[in-house]
Task: inverse folding
């Protein structure tokens, strides 16, 4: 079966997905039996390109790389719902900016696709945080699949590990580094960069959110904790109920002082349990230089999951990045096509 891919949001992640699809077209077919056509790309400023017979990715990527737009190729117009119908899409890759309050515009895109029986992969945390149960139910009712590997730890397969790899284990708690931008900033500040320069570099490298206050104030890590609580424990937590302190108050002096004492400062996120219940948190912590998390630098993330049957499992890998997150969309699409 040919996968007819629609893409919503052609920024860092969406463009990287197109690059990977184009580069690996033959490999994907030979290794995974994954064949595709990209039939629709919709982006706020770059415009809309559509061809139910399959878009010419070479031409589109040339335009994107030279002009950051679709140029004269952008000739389609219309409401996203109508475009989905006209394009013959069978799978939607959704990677518009995250809005943690409303889930929009991603939430409407996901509803439009799923209600038409079109499967969805998304890296957008907003809709998953805001309407997880509704979207899972809609997918089931309409015979579609919903995948979201990239919403936590980008392409590092944490969600797949949680759902499949450790099936049968009870999770007793988890802690880790779940935001790439802040870990990158703290690493760079430890090397002497200013906060502003480090944030600008994280943005240029495609790690930061469209509104980076979501990263530096801890909202992004907090919503990842909310999503993990839902997937692992079936628990609804409001992101406002996560104890949340970001990194905006962390100074170079504190980082240097911690280092002199044999510690490194990391923005740590986790869920712990005690007799009073579940405690989700995000906060900067001094970590002993000998602790495994102290060695996690740059945009890398890590999580240690404490389980009954396996004890502690630690997963380390990219937590942000355009190609790393495009990979999450691709792996979801390959899994869903099987
Ligand atoms: N970058 C990363 O490392 C990771 C990102 N994510 C998530 O993936 C998503 C995409 O991230 P990223 O590519 O970095 O973000 P970008 O801001 O680079 O790209 C988002 C794109 O979506 C476009 N857009 C905005 N609104 C609409 C709309 N209504 N319809 C169609 N397109 C729209 C934006 O256009 P314009 O710029 O004109 O507003 C932009 O081109 C986000 O939700 C992010 O949280 C998840 C994991 C890692
Ligand atoms: N802005 C996020 C991107 C991935 O979710 C991060 O830096 O971790």
Result:
């Amino acid at each position: 079966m040919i996968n007819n891919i629609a893409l919503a949001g052609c920024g860092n992640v969406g463009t990287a997905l197109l690059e990977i699809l184009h580069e690996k077209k033959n490999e994907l077919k030979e290794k995974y039996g994954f064949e595709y056509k990209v039939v629709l790309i919709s982006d706020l400023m770059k415009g809309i390109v559509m061809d139910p017979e399959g878009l010419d990715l070479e031409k589109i990527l040339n335009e994107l790389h030279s002009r950051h737009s679709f140029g004269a190729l952008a000739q389609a117009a219309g409401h996203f719902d109508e475009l989905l119908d006209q394009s013959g899409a069978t799978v939607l890759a959704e990677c518009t900016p995250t809005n943690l309050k409303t889930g929009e515009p991603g939430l409407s895109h996901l509803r439009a696709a799923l209600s038409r029986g079109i499967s969805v992969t998304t890296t957008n945390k907003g809709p998953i945080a805001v309407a997880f149960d509704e979207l899972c139910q809609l997918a089931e009712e309409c015979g579609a699949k919903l995948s979201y590997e990239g919403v936590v730890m980008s392409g590092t397969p944490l969600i797949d590990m949680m759902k499949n790899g450790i099936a049968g284990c009870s999770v007793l708690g988890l802690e880790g580094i779940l935001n790439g931008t802040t870990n990158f900033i703290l690493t760079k500040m430890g090397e002497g960069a200013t906060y502003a320069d480090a944030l600008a570099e994280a943005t240029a490298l495609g790690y930061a959110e469209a509104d980076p206050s979501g990263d530096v104030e801890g909202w992004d890590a907090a919503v990842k904790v909310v999503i993990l609580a839902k997937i692992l424990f079936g628990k609804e937590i409001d992101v406002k109920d996560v104890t949340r302190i970001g990194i905006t108050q962390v100074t170079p002096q504190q980082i240097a002082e911690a280092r002199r004492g044999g510690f490194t400062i990391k923005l740590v996120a986790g869920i712990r349990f005690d007799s009073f219940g579940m405690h989700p948190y995000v906060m900067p912590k001094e970590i002993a230089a000998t602790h495994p998390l102290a060695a996690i630098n740059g945009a890398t993330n890590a999580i240690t999951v404490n389980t009954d049957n396996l004890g502690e499992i630690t997963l380390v890998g990219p937590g942000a990045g355009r190609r790393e997150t495009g990979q999450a969309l691709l792996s979801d699409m390959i899994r869903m096509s099987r």
Observations:
- The mean pLDDT is 96.
- The domain at 2-154+322-337 is CATH 3.40.50.720 (Rossmann fold).
- Residues 8-14, 42-45, 95-98, 105, 123-125, 150, 154, 206-207, 209-210, 320-322, 325 surround NDP (ligand 1) (CB under 6 Å).
